[in-house]
């Protein structure tokens, strides 16, 4: 095993190979699935390198888990210096399982170099319109692929469905639904009695939340998903076009992550009150992201908590289920509805590997 936790150059390969960025909840599940599929005799591009904030390690052995563990446990100081030395080119598949804006800024450049990028991180295509456009332009210039199935619905067939409908000439008139697996889990389990904060801890421990759960509770993660969905539908929405209502109390917003967790119970009273109001009306709380064309042709986009009758089309689902309704020219009376688990390391890693396999089949 050749492990070099800091600064390693990465020459352009002759054949397809994977470099995994991120050794956290999703990265670890990705390696586990890669190992498991290999053991089942599937032919996959090899895992050639892994990076995290500690550095970059080349994998010269049949032991990606050992390399991952060594890198995770490395005492090296936190640094992203490996990025400056990394060169990805044709044949490379970069799998982004980080939540790093520094890495997301590199997506377009790596595509321009001819490498394919497969990402669970939404900060590439789910933030500014300029960054998203740059990624699209880079793909068009080199033909390299941008695998984004994991970014919305943790691999549920949402993005591909929207793209196929749009490619078939259908106008997408609205998309609305539960787009956060962690918020689905929270709303499906919170009973108004046990503290809401205890469920946030459980969702974090299960790997459903973002590394910082405030990204979920603030609605920012769903804003990114709404942007990615709208862009897949051919609508170039920008960040400020999406109105977002946050669940994070003001006092908890500027804190470090550790301090936020300490003061998390401060969220409980407001959530108990919201639950009680909904319960009194015989309704349930659901966190909904949507974009839609109003009858005057205006496109609006919103994210936030709402209370719905239990019989409402978007109120169904259990656990981490995302449930998303799509209205188009074709599906104008009754929407097309897609539902299934929308968060968790295994489904997310599965979506990343599905995209890797698609690239392998087409290149
Ligand atoms: N947990 C889930 O259900 C889903 C997660 N995702 C996305 O997957 C991504 C990863 O999530 P988790 O694994 O929960 O996060 P995590 O916090 O457990 O792991 C993040 C990893 O990224 C690495 N990293 C951060 N900055 C880096 C840098 N500059 N260079 C190299 N590595 C760097 C960290 O060292 C860490 O290993 C996030 O973008 C999240 O939005 C997407 C769909 C579902
Ligand atoms: N934190 C996200 C994970 C998937 O994108 C969520 O809760 O949906």
Automatic annotation (TrEMBL):
User: What Pfam families does its record include?
Assistant: Homoserine_dh, NAD_binding_3
Q: Which domain of life is it from?
A: Bacteria
Q: Where is the Homoserine dehydrogenase catalytic domain?
A: 157-357
Q: Which PROSITE patterns match?
A: HOMOSER_DHGENASE (PS01042)
List the EC numbers from the record: 1.1.1.3
**Which SUPFAM superfamilies does the record match to this protein?**
Glyceraldehyde-3-phosphate dehydrogenase-like, C-terminal domain, NAD(P)-binding Rossmann-fold domains
Chemical reaction(s) catalysed: L-homoserine + NADP(+) = L-aspartate 4-semialdehyde + NADPH + H(+); L-homoserine + NAD(+) = L-aspartate 4-semialdehyde + NADH + H(+)
Pathway listed for it is: Amino-acid biosynthesis; L-threonine biosynthesis; L-threonine from L-aspartate: step 3/5; Amino-acid biosynthesis; L-methionine biosynthesis via de novo pathway; L-homoserine from L-aspartate: step 3/3
Q: Does the keyword Amino-acid biosynthesis apply?
A: yes
* Keyword annotations: Amino-acid biosynthesis, Methionine biosynthesis, NADP, Oxidoreductase, Threonine biosynthesis
Q: Which cofactor does it need?
A: a metal cation
The UniProt record lists the Aspartate/homoserine dehydrogenase NAD-binding domain at 22-146
The family note in this entry says: Belongs to the homoserine dehydrogenase family.
- Record-given protein name: Homoserine dehydrogenase
Q: What is the lineage of its organism?
A: Bacteria, Pseudomonadati, Pseudomonadota, Gammaproteobacteria, Lysobacterales
């Amino acid at each position: 095993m050749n492990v070099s936790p800091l600064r390693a150059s990465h020459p352009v390969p002759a054949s397809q190979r994977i470099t995994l960025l991120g050794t956290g909840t999703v990265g670890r599940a990705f390696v586990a699935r890669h190992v498991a599929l290999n053991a089942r005799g599937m032919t996959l591009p090899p895992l050639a390198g892994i990076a995290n904030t500690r550095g970059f390690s080349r994998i010269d052995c049949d032991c990606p888990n050992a390399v991952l563990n060594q890198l995770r446990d490395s005492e090296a100081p936190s640094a992203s210096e490996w990025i400056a030395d990394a060169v990805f080119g044709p044949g490379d598949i970069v799998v982004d399982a980080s939540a790093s804006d520094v890495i997301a800024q590199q997506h377009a450049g790596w595509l321009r170099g001819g490498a394919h990028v497969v990402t669970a991180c939404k900060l590439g295509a789910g933030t500014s319109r300029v960054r998203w456009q740059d990624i699209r332009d880079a793909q068009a210039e080199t033909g390299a692929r941008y695998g984004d199935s994991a970014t919305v619905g943790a691999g549920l067939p949402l993005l591909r469905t929207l793209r196929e409908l749009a490619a078939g000439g259908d106008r997408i008139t609205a998309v609305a639904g539960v787009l956060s697996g962690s918020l689905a889990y929270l709303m499906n389990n919170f009973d108004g009695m046990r503290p809401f904060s205890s469920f946030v801890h459980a969702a974090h421990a299960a790997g459903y939340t973002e590394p910082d759960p405030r990204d979920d509770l603030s609605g920012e993660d769903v804003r990114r998903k709404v942007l990615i969905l709208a862009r897949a539908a051919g609508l170039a929405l920008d960040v400020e076009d999406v109105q977002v209502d946050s669940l994070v109390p003001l006092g908890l917003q500027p804190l470090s992550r550790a301090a936020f967790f300490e003061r998390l119970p401060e969220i409980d009273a407001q959530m108990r009150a919201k639950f009680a109001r909904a319960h009194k009306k015989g309704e349930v709380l659901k966190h909904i992201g949507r974009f839609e064309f109003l009858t005057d042709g205006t496109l609006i986009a919103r994210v936030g908590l709402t209370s719905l009758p239990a019989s409402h089309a978007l109120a169904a689902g259990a656990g981490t289920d995302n449930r998303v309704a799509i209205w188009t020219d074709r599906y104008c009376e009754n929407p097309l509805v897609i539902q299934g688990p929308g968060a968790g390391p295994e489904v997310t890693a599965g979506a990343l590997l599905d995209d890797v396999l698609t690239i392998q089949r087409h290149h």
